[in-house]
Design brief:
- By secondary structure, this protein is an all-alpha fold.
- It folds into two domains: 47-131, Serine Threonine Protein Phosphatase 5, Tetratricopeptide repeat (Alpha Horseshoe), CATH 1.25.40.10; 133-184, no CATH class.
- It is 84% helix and 0% strand.
- Helix 8 (151-164) runs antiparallel to helix 9.
- 26% of the residues are buried.
Length: 184
């Protein structure tokens, strides 16, 4: 082989290696950037609650009774004004995790909004049976009884809320409500 021919072959081989190295580096770099694209997809799903609900329903088929999925579905249904559907998801979550305070608290809120005051009281009392000093449940029961025209019962729950966790937002709301209620 002539020297000039060898020179061109050697240059071609170097170009191939250089190109392959560049492709390798681009692939390695793009792998480390791939997770950044995931939030865009999640944001697109989050922008359309119906798409998110469908995606969550598919996840729920893979993980039946998964409380975080059911809670998110309930939130989306609630936000769309579909309180019956929200309550259904929360009831399923409560059935699967009967000691989950957050599920019972949220179910109580949804039931109250639906006009099922007795159901709301029952669910919120379940929270207190699990944790007697749960400040949000104490505040909520006070509000329910105040709205029912029972200021003494409301006062009792709000005093417990303030005592249970004085710095909590619900305790602050309870203090304000007690001031508006007046009396001893």
């Amino acid at each position: 082989m002539k020297a000039s021919h060898r020179k061109w072959v050697l240059m071609g081989v170097c170009a191939v290696f250089l190109g392959a190295g560049t492709v390798f580096l681009l692939r390695v770099t793009s792998r480390s950037e791939a997770p950044a694209a995931a939030p865009r997809k999640a944001a697109a799903v989050a922008e359309n609650p119906e798409h998110e609900l469908k995606a969550l329903a598919m996840e729920l088929e893979k993980k039946p009774g998964h409380t975080p999925i059911l809670m998110r579905m309930a939130q989306l249904e609630h936000d769309k004004g579909r309180l019956d559907d929200a309550a259904g998801h929360l009831r399923m979550a409560a059935q699967n995790e009967p000691s989950n305070q957050d599920v019972h608290l949220e179910l109580g809120r949804v039931l109250y909004e639906k006009g099922d005051v007795d159901g709301a009281i029952s669910e919120t009392e379940k929270v207190l049976s699990l944790n007697p000093s749960q400040v949000d449940a104490l505040y909520n029961l006070g509000a329910i009884y105040a709205n029912r025209g029972n200021p003494q019962q409301a006062r009792s729950y709000w005093i417990k809320a303030v005592t249970a966790e004085p710095a909590a937002d619900s305790a602050k709301k309870a203090r304000d409500a007690l001031a508006r209620l007046g009396g001893s």
